Amino acid sequence: MAKHPEVQQKAAEEVDEFLRRHGNKLNYECVHELPYLEACVDETLRKCPILGILTREVMDDYVLPTGLKLDVGVRVHVPIYHMHHNPNYFPEPEKYKPERFLAENKNDIKPYTYFPFGSGPRLCIGMRFAKMQVMSGLITFLKKYKVELAPGMPETLVLDSRTFLTQPKDHGILLKLTEREGWEGRKFAREQNKA
Length: 195
What we know:
This protein is of the alpha+beta class. The chain has helices at 5-21, 30-33, 35-47, 80-84, 103-106, 127-142, 185-194, and strands at 54-57, 62-63, 69-70, 75-78, 145-149, 175-179.
């Protein structure tokens, strides 16, 4: 979002509206009532999945549609990062487009091409908790602050392919935070203090 102020603004407006509806209280509904913010999270996980590769072991002999036979015990490495960046599945894969994950577009995503938490019976057991934590953190952040790249921070991240987790190569992510002008939450906070 630091590189896309129009996306950040739209997400912040959705957060403001959510907080207005809920009396400036954060609750579990945040996971379901903020479709644009959730789409931002999904698009971020598409561009930078936590794990770039999933490893699975073949449990039964299997023949792929190409004719390649996989024997029991063989380890298969599923290239999540590359699937998420394949233009056949995600047009303009290097562009940050949260709209891909809005309800009206979700059906356009081919099954088993987007799986930052895995899929099927091995789906990450912590997925719901992780998404709830990320959403509540973003709400808390976006209600007060806006973010942009810090001076000297490159626009394009070079990811380190030598690591288990997806992370920037040679440096961290440097951001500049500023308080949002006209932050609506101040009004709620003053009203809460008077009550």
